[in-house]
Design goal:
single chain, alpha/beta, Alkaline Phosphatase, subunit A, Immunoglobulin-like, 2 domains, 9-stranded mixed beta sheet, 4-stranded antiparallel beta sheet, about 25% helix, globular
Amino acid sequence: MKRRKFISMTAASTTAMLLAPAILKSKKDFAIIPNEQIQSLDSDNIVIIIELFGGNDGLNTIIPAEDDTYYKIRPSIGIPKNVAVKVNDIYMNPALVQNMQNTGMQRMFEDGRLAIVEGIGYDLPTLSHFRSEDIWLSGINPKNNNNIKLLDGWLGRYFALKFPNFPVEIPAHPLSISLENSIPLMAKSDKGHMGIALTDPDAFYKLGVALTPVDPLMTGSEYSDKEFNFIYTIAKQSEYYSNVVKTAYDTGKSKINANKYSSGTLSQKMKLISSLIAGGLKTNVYYMKISNFDTHAQQVDASFGGGHYSLLNQVAKAISEFMDDAALTGFADRITGMTTSEFGRRAYENGSRGCDHGAASMQFIWGSDKYLNGGYWNNRPKLTDLDVNGNVKYQTDFRVIYTEILEKRFGANNSDISSVFGESFLPLNILSDRASSAEDYIKPNFNKSILINPNPSSGNQTVSFELFKAGVVNISIYNPEGRQELILQNNYLNEGFYQIPFTLNKSGTFICSVTVNNKRYNTKFVVLK
């Protein structure tokens, strides 16, 4: 039972049938590939994802305190302006600031280390917790077609794309670690689970001791030989990763500032991540989950504290404590963190001092001010223009943020993005490349790299630019939600001046994006029809 329990905990082996076809066809032992040799993952960037499960109430997280409509539709649970904490020109729930070192997220926002992204969501949102969670974790929007099964995740698909021989070849360090009891859908792929799950490195190590069978791999072609080789490979991978994690944890736990962390579960998970990073683990993604954001009743108490306050306070403490430790320990520049939640809450309160399932919400993204464009992104929620269910309308597709993570932190290109999501999205440029090239490909023209003429237009316009150097050029048109509307060009172009006419039969504000050898140049234009 001990070994069965361990195998069930490891992502190299969980849902063994996903891995069986690849391993059963191979008669070779698995090979270990250094993480820095993995295609497009040759950086030391680390992404931390905190899922706020239950549907976080964005309107009571970043308070629209200047909007009288907010208090009209939330007479009992609206956070008063004099209770909310004004930071620059926004109002934070006091839970994000109070009872923590260095005023928590207030200090991070003021320092440019925190971005608040408003209006994140997707088309035709479902109000089901689990279906919407699957949509967020998979990165696929089936648009209310429940016959489409979501079996793998956006990170799992990307890692599988960059690691084609997995699991016969595995990375020297896990690609991702879930600090929960199981692997999230986000890290699953058709090749298997692209990471591991653990909650205690010491227990993880003890379960892996001497797990590899003494007998060598079988060389026969009988099914029993293949079955043995499958179990052998799983066990050896599991024992290998248990040693890697244990070594990093033992090395790193004395290097961090352990007294920075409070006793909350989320803070202790962040402390564990800090130890693993400080110990030299090269894992790219860490995931954790905090539940109970389903605040139908007693979300806010009479003093404007309560359940939601407590949850937000835990999240803010964990993030700010970790980033303070990261700055002192020396790895803050490598960190990019973000929160996700399957949906927001209904704009109107429900009469039980709570609010029901909604649609669009807000998202935190944090990191070093060197590589993060902190501040408030998108427009304030328009509470006089809600959807048919009384929910805040979304402004930006959630996969825009994922695209930004994949492009700016893991080196994805346009082709990779289309492979992962089935369509292309345009980043908001909240993140900056850590290893950006100073090389420019397009010659500025009237202080602009690309020009759209006429602008505004009636739908017929021309994009103009001049290439300094030849390269693979993709020219695409994106709508305000970040989704691709048109592809004008996607091939190799020689240096020279180009004018490319196109037609767009929609009114609105759009973005033309010219990408040359993975460097983007964007400009906005307006169509009036």
